[in-house]
Amino acid sequence: MKIGIVGAGGRMGLTNIKAVSAHPDLTLVAAIDRPGSPVIGKDAGLLAGGEETGIVIGDDVKALISAADAIIDFTAPAVSVDLAGRIAAKGLIHIVGTTGCSPQDDAAIAQAAEDGARIVKSGNFSLGVNLLAALVKKTAQTLDIDFDIEILEMHHRHKVDAPSGTALLLGEAAAEGRGIELAAHSVRVRDGHTGAREPGSIGFATLRGGGIVGEHSVLFSSTAETVTFSHSARDRSLFADGALRAALWAADKPKGLYSMADVLGLTD
Ligand code: NAD
């Protein structure tokens, strides 16, 4: 499968270049970053700390689309929305790891899938977090409303969106288990005289600092006990490995919008 990478100079872009270069069934055919980026003109493999690939990082999105069967995209919401719209008619595979999408962005991405793209979008491409989400959903189904649900996340100092895509994915799993809408029950920030905790709400707490790749905990707390699920990402390669697995999985799928839970067979 021919792979194109967008956001090639980013933390995930470089990790994705490395993972594609090492994969026996995948060939890197194009890599782009934003116009004016200092990585333009550099060899993708060398920039990612590996062997020379002969693939020079460019900024031509049309060239990327015409060269690739599948595009791996960990960038920013506006970039992912634009790309999804452009590739829809060609029926390409679009693996979207970008987080921080608004409901309008998500609707535009869903429309692109309707129009012909094969899109796998997930706030987290690791097997561990997707397994955790399945356990969180089951636990929220089992424990009653006396168990308060709180989600805690910590990421590196450069992260620009909050709560993380993974925290929201875990929140969605908890809300689904409870049979409620996350948007109507989530508490994203607490500050000042907040009053007592609203029964049945799902709280989020965000920490930022240093080089943390991704730490997540989901707590179910009653007055008598607390059940805690947690996941620590130590290396970005786990997201890249998941993204490539998703691209290969999508090869024989019809147009549509899929999740990593679909790829891993974790949906019920
Ligand atoms: P980053 O800032 O290091 O990289 C983003 C890259 O996108 C940069 O190189 C930037 O120049 C490039 N870019 C911006 N505009 C562009 C354009 N118009 N065309 C091409 N490239 C463009 O960020 P990062 O840490 O690599 O994370 C990127 C995204 O992936 C974030 O939303 C992050 O939350 C998300 N992420 C998701 C997962 C997951 O498993 N889903 C895991 C890690 C990170």
Description:
By secondary structure, the chain is α/β, with parallel strands linked by helices. It has two domains: 2-121 and 236-263, NAD(P)-binding Rossmann-like Domain (Rossmann fold); 127-233, Dihydrodipicolinate Reductase, domain 2 (2-Layer Sandwich), CATH 3.30.360. It is 37% helix and 22% strand. It has ten helices and eleven strands. The protein has helices at 11-22, 44-47, 61-67, 77-87, 103-114, 127-142, 165-178, 182-185, 237-250, 260-263, and strands at 2-6, 27-32, 70-73, 93-96, 118-121, 148-155, 186-187, 202-208, 214-221, 226-233, 256-258. The protein has a six-stranded parallel sheet, with helices on both faces. The longest helix has 16 residues, at 127-142. The radius of gyration is 19 Å and the shape is globular. The structure holds nicotinamide-adenine-dinucleotide (NAD). Residues 6-7, 9-13, 32-34, 37, 74-76, 79, 97-100, 122-125, 165, 239 line the site of nicotinamide-adenine-dinucleotide.
